[in-house]
From TrEMBL:
Superkingdom per UniProt: Bacteria
Organism of origin: Halobacillus naozhouensis
Domain BPL/LPL catalytic span(s) in chain numbering: 31-241
Sorted UniProt keywords: Ligase
Xref: Gene3D superfamilies: Bira Bifunctional Protein, Domain 2 (3.30.930.10)
Name under which the protein is recorded: Biotin/lipoate A/B protein ligase family protein
Keyword Ligase set for record: yes
Amino acid sequence: METWYYVDSNHLTPALNMALDEALMNWHREGKIPPVLRFYGWDPAGLSVGYFQKVHGKIDVDSVKSHGYDLVRRQTGGRAVLHDNELTYSVIVSEQHPDMPASVKEAYLVISQGLLEGFKELDIAAEFAIPEGKPDTNGSAVCFEEPSWYELIVDGKKAAGSAQTRKKGIILQHGSIPIEVDETKLFDMFIYKNERIKERARKAFSDKAISINNLSPVKRSYSEVKAAFQKGFEKGLNLHLEPFHLNEEQWSEVNQIAEEKYSNDKWNYSR
């Protein structure tokens, strides 16, 4: 059984959340820390947009701000995700790790075993998505509308969304496990031609995505969900998780990355 670091960073700002993922990648690349599993929440709630995603004309920036949310651009691709009442996870591991396949798709399968086991801990019968035919190309800016390979679905609805990137030999896979979803607020974040089209998209969304508390016979708190997925990753990836707490110098580095990059409008709005 391999030992990984376990970082429980609780609720941070969107900029700090993205900066901490990047710092952990740097430290693992430099050999300062082993692979990492991290769990976190968002305060304030945030809309994260994919690395290549266009903001202008797609995201209603005024609405994001009026709800008190922060917009932040991820290192990973994909569509926008509203991170509110959810558990977010990150896995940081070397591409050279003996258990990590070379292909992104197959690495998804390995890492997502932890998610599958986490749902089992909550008595939720999730399974891996195996998309048929061509990937969805409907042009929507909203994540969770279509599952990708090996994302977790329950009764055909997406229950966890993930994204992966590889930078200088290090894999970062992070993802969103919604505990509750406010569909009205979610669809306020996006620009539609008119209200009718927005309402139609919102109604269709409820047939495509589902949250923990829509699935669980009892309401689950953030801490209960976190504990379940910690056990799930230990089981699914056969890990011993050792708690890791950042020191003052490390937090200073994270804050610097957040300030220079993830709090910067140039990074967030004009990729």
